[in-house]
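Anyone else keep sequences and structure tokens together like this?

Example one:
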Amino acid sequence: MTEYETTFEKASIWAVVWRFLLIALGVVIIGVFLLLAFMGENLTLVSLITDGLLYFSLYKLTLTLMKRQSLSVKALSRPASYSRGNILNLLGLTALTAFVATSFMYFIITFLTFFPQLFDRVMPYILDITLVEDMSYVYLVFVAVVFAPIVEELFFRGYILNKWADKYGVKLGVILSSLAFMIIHLRSVFIPQLLVGLICGLLYVKYNNLLYAIFFHALYNLFVILPSLFIQSGSSEETQAAFLGVRDSLPLEFSIFSLLFLISFAFLIYFLKNLFKKVRTRKSPYAINVQKIEEY
């Protein structure tokens, strides 16, 4: 009789979700009280506290339920040596993905200018879900580069991917967990989030080590927000007006970035295709790692 479950197949995703939803409701109430206490000021501090509580709660909840279900936390990652070649490849892949994500908006806007009526209907919605007003850089760094990569990779790759990989197969597990990751990011443009989810999942499957996915996720978020840390931009209203004005007069840089997007996107799809081809195992990273632990 083994000490741990050898697969994630019996793990309950719903057990994590419904508990987290209850916690999230409590955090919302805390946030309201904090806003009242600060009289509507210190929004960055309130957001940092509430989002920090949410991420910490999901982190602790995931690990606690894993232990209750006799799942080995240690088996989420397999100790591995980090060669310089692997790190350099990861850096290149991250930079390419970040460029695809940032240039994707230029491509969408350029495409929509060929259909003025569609532009008028779609652009306000895209700008509404992607532009965030008065977002502190301190908040962005802590949440996007520290909290999100660790907790989201633990949940989406460490828990959900392993569960669905053991139940439906590794490739389908990567795809389904990436779709879930994309859907949950409601305030982001979906396609880049899907790509990030797929790459994180494939890196996890390739190395059987969650740290690779966490490192990629953190570095990707840093690359995406880095330009805003050094470039002084106007208000949200000014930014929206600038993008909406593109409908009648398309700047040259939009066409250039759109072309570069198509080229870089083609390269990224090529790499993803190769990574998918190399997925030959039928076992989840957890199942492989827990077997190694038991053999040791």
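And example two:
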Amino acid sequence: MENDEIIPEGQENSSAEKTHNTAKTKKRRKPRGFVVVLAIIASLCVLAVIITAAGIIYVKKNFNFKYNEITSEPEELGFEEVKDDEIVNIALFGIDTKDPESFKGRSDSIMILSINKTNDKIKLISVMRDSFVPIDRDEWTDLNKINAAYASGGPELAIKTLNNIFALDISEYATVNFYGMADIIDAMGGVDVQITDAEIAMVNAGVKEQCSYLGKDSGPYLISESGMQHLNGIQAVSYSRIRYVANAQGTANDYGRTDRQRYILSQLFKSVKSKSKSEYISLIKAVSPHCETSLSYTQILSLAVDVLIGSPALEESRVPFDDYIMKAPQTNAGAILYYDLNYAANIIHAFIYEDIKPEDFITQNGIEENDWYRNGYTKPKIISQEERNKQNSGSSETQSGTASAQ
């Protein structure tokens, strides 16, 4: 089951989303755990000030930080060895659940957080939840939407799936649900967002539903004007759930929603970097109850130091781009996103390891569309920039030789 934002009365038919191969009418549901996975980034920054053993003990005793140990065997997570010791890749999940204490369900928000300790950059990549992928279980391979991996096999199977289809080396994760996200955003001081006229009704519908659930008067939280607005937690959560109208950049559907989510996260990231040390304790109190992670306190502290010392830039993207989405085959999985997973893997690797933006990669290398569903899926062969240069050079020489012969 998938949660969506509330559609304002009178707009149900006019704003219904059309997917690539199916149009569906969504039921009104409780707010979805959007992927404000700032839980992990905020934790890295917040915990950086507690760098002694006594500090770690203090955090363990006073904060409800949910640690979940997973396997440390690379082969059980779908990879053989770490590709670059200076680059740490972490899976981030936002879970569809109505239980505030639960971290189980479909990972309807999926991101890859990549921390490069050498060039002081953080990459954040959304993986669309409807991506149709092979999910490699112990005894068989299931073809399904990628968000099904977490629901049926927890974080380990979800990580293994990401590693298998994109040839990555993820060994850690962080998961959030939506219940505490408004509090987290409020603790950060809110966010500035450009609101369109069409988004006002959508934001307010979500605000009313959240306030009803929380037993609050929605009046003070309603938005009456478009333009740049400073949103509090309840408003920002509502904004992040919108997908039935385009955002200020003209992006609609689930793509627009992930754009909104990454924008909110980027604003929160900037906010964390600007906070004083005296504010860190309140931030970690807001974040920690709503995050489950396989990262130990020692790992978090180590990463936090790397993050804060470098004051890294945050770059974001998503998979897939519209450019390489293909016509979807008929499956039992419902509305899916179908694309060449090997090509997507090369784009991700170029972004993480070669610092090549996805749009530049596409311009340089063109589009690949392998119908893997019909032809059978094979694990991706990652092509390095050097290999691509050789291929391009060889292709140019061949074309030049042909032209000369003519």
